[in-house]
Design goal:
- The protein is built from 20 helices and 11 strands.
- The chain is α+β, with helices and mostly antiparallel strands.
- 51% of the residues are buried.
- Bound molecules: flavin-adenine dinucleotide.
Length: 555
């Protein structure tokens, strides 16, 4: 039997009584925003400081034990496909656990899917990014339809507004904050969600290989025949899909129900049995003459949908930053309460190295995600837009790729507890690889970085200007930034270098942010461990780094 030591104090005693000997008190019951100074600092400097009170309220809601319980439940009781009703009629519905709907109510009320479009003030994207990041610390499946809806809005505003049949009923409902999961024609609903269908069996990255055919109909719409191999959140009220029209690959608006309430000809074949992201339904569908409306011109499908893709890439980066922060916060909490060999884990020198390294990753990811969100603001300059073109794929690649390793390492801090399903870490670990796969898998998105670097000199100039803000603060950073900018100007890389280039851009941007805004030990440690030739594993920070100083700054 372990006994309570006098130096553990009343709080430690209370937690031991309620959780068993040497088990940490519950992580839940904390304000996820107010316990994260890195996020608060990033929100303030990127222009979203006015949202502080709202984010604090959202952080409190998300941090409640009840919200964590909803997240666990939504993933334990996965959605089920209902293809037919009891009379044998095709219905193609997905039944979700009530916990899914409760989480959706919370997130839509917060405006994760619409706030910057509904209230487009300076800092609106940043404030929304912070809300989304906090959500990602608790549950991720619900973020799929929220992201797709958010990302579809610019496309709908630009193109659907030209189609009277779409503009009137749809946009106000997409921008509404009261979640309405009912299967009704959009005109009878209070709000609507939008999904995206690009990937087919024969190819996801290379969408030009799409085989779904779109035939013009007499009423100005089209009839789609074919399939989609991944079609997430099929209960969304409409999807933007790609299909081959007579003039080439085109983007279409595909409602689930027709205005008279009849089901559109979209058959859900089955739901994917996924590694993670289990609260969210991802389906395979077939289109059997489904009615759809052309957005933009025939043959311009990729150009039309790319705006949606860019915004979903932003969310992948923010979501993975949230996963990283969530996992690291749980690791810190555990290590500070769990004792081994006569002292807490957080007091053991080797664990201090691991924790410090994890904190570096979380700080960098948060800073990068919020900086990237600023480049999406409505009032961004042309230089910001150019930076965004290069930084979005680079940062998406880097944060999403780092998430899996970071969450795995954070889970190990909890020892065996981190491997047991009652703890959120196993779910987070299964979730972590996903953002790296969709919306441009790592290789594909890194090739996009090279494309942007080759074709858009303004993007390189914007990157140089951003990095110049931290010049002189650290010699390692100066060397890294100089070598990177020279190599981008020379464009002396080939496809095999794409990951290295994308990673170098992301780490340069992260170091530049940390050198200017983070505590000095943290920024220095980042430069020492992430720039140049560095070890691949966590817990390999160089000896001269003060590993106690880095976590000490953070909750
Ligand atoms: C849970 C989940 C939900 C999804 N939901 C949706 C959805 O709602 N809508 C939708 O449209 N899609 C969705 N997707 C599909 C996703 O976007 C694709 O899986 C992704 O784009 C990759 O396409 P693919 O699976 O066909 O792989 P492929 O395109 O076959 O690629 C396989 C691998 O090869 C790499 N690769 C490809 N080309 C190159 C190259 N030129 N050089 C080097 N490497 C290369 C890729 O990076 C990848 O690692 C979902 C996927 C998952 C896992």
């Amino acid at each position: 039997m372990h006994s309570v030591r006098p130096d553990q104090g009343p709080l430690a005693f209370a937690s031991i009584v309620s959780t068993g000997p040497n088990q940490p008190p519950p992580f839940e019951g904390r304000n996820l925003y107010l316990t994260d100074p890195a996020l608060q600092g990033a929100v303030a400097r990127e222009g979203g400081g006015w949202a502080h009170d709202r984010l604090a309220a959202w952080g409190a809601t998300l941090g409640r034990a009840e919200t964590f319980a909803l997240a666990a439940r939504a993933n334990r009781f996965a959605p089920e496909l209902r293809t037919h009703d009891r009379f044998g009629a095709r219905i193609d519905e997905v039944a979700y656990d009530p916990s899914w709907h409760e989480l959706m109510v919370l997130a839509t009320r917060e405006g994760e899917h619409c706030a910057p479009w509904l209230e487009p003030r300076a800092g609106a994207q940043v404030a929304r990014a912070a809300a989304y990041l906090l959500h990602a610390e608790v549950e991720n499946g619900t973020q799929c339809p929220l992201t797709m809806t958010y990302a579809a809005v610019p496309v709908l505003q630009r193109y659907a507004s030209l189609l009277p049949a779409l503009a009137g009923p749809w946009l106000p409902r997409v921008l509404a904050r009261d979640y309405d999961p009912r299967s009704l024609p959009v005109g009878e609903k209070t709000s609507a969600l939008i999904g995206m269908g690009m990937t087919e069996r024969q190819g996801g990255s290379d969408v030009r290989a799409n085989a779904t055919a779109a035939a013009p109909a007499d009423d100005g719409s089209y009839r789609l025949t074919g399939h989609k191999w991944f079609f997430s959140a099929p209960m969304c009220d409409a999807h933007l899909v790609l299909a081959q029209a007579p003039g080439g690959l085109s983007c279409f608006f595909l409602p689930r129900l027709m205005p008279d309430g009849a089901k559109n000809e979209v058959r859900i074949q089955r739901l994917k049995d996924k590694l993670g992201n289990r609260s969210n339904a991802s389906s395979e569908v077939e289109f059997d003459g489904a009615a759809a409306w052309l957005l933009g011109d025939e043959g311009r499908g990729v150009a039309v949908i790319i705006e949606m893709v860019q915004h979903t890439r932003l969310d992948c980066a923010i979501g993975s930053a949230g996963l990283i922060r969530g996992a690291v916060a749980q690791a810190l909490h555990h290590a500070r309460h769990r004792r081994a060999f006569g002292r807490t884990l957080a007091e053991q020198p080797l664990m201090q190295n691991v924790l410090a390294d994890l904190v570096l990753e979380a700080e960098a990811a948060t800073a990068l995600a919020l900086r990237l969100a600023r480049s999406f603001e409505a009032d961004s300059s042309s230089a910001e837009a150019a930076l965004s073109r290069l930084a979005t794929p680079a940062i998406k690649y880097w944060i999403c790729k780092r998430a899996t390793a970071t969450v795995a390492e954070a889970a190990e801090v909890l020892g065996g507890n981190g491997y047991v399903e009652e703890c959120p870490l196993p779910r987070m670990l299964r979730e972590a690889p996903l953002n790296s796969i969709w919306e441009g898998s790592a290789n594909v998105i890194c090739l996009d970085v090279l494309r942007a670097a080759r074709r858009e000199p303004a993007a390189i100039d914007a990157l140089k200007a951003e990095l110049a803000l931290a010049r002189g603060a650290d010699a390692r950073f100066d060397r890294h930034a100089t070598a990177l900018c020279e190599s981008l100007h020379r464009a002396d890389f080939d496809e095999r270098d794409a990951r290295r280039v994308a990673g170098a851009i992301a780490t340069a941007l992260a170091a530049s942010l940390l050198l200017r805004h983070a505590p000095a030990p943290l920024a220095g440690a980042y430069c020492a461990s992430r720039l140049g030739e560095t070890g691949a594993a966590f817990g390999t920070l160089p000896r001269e780094i003060d590993c106690t100083a880095i976590p000490a700054h953070r909750a």
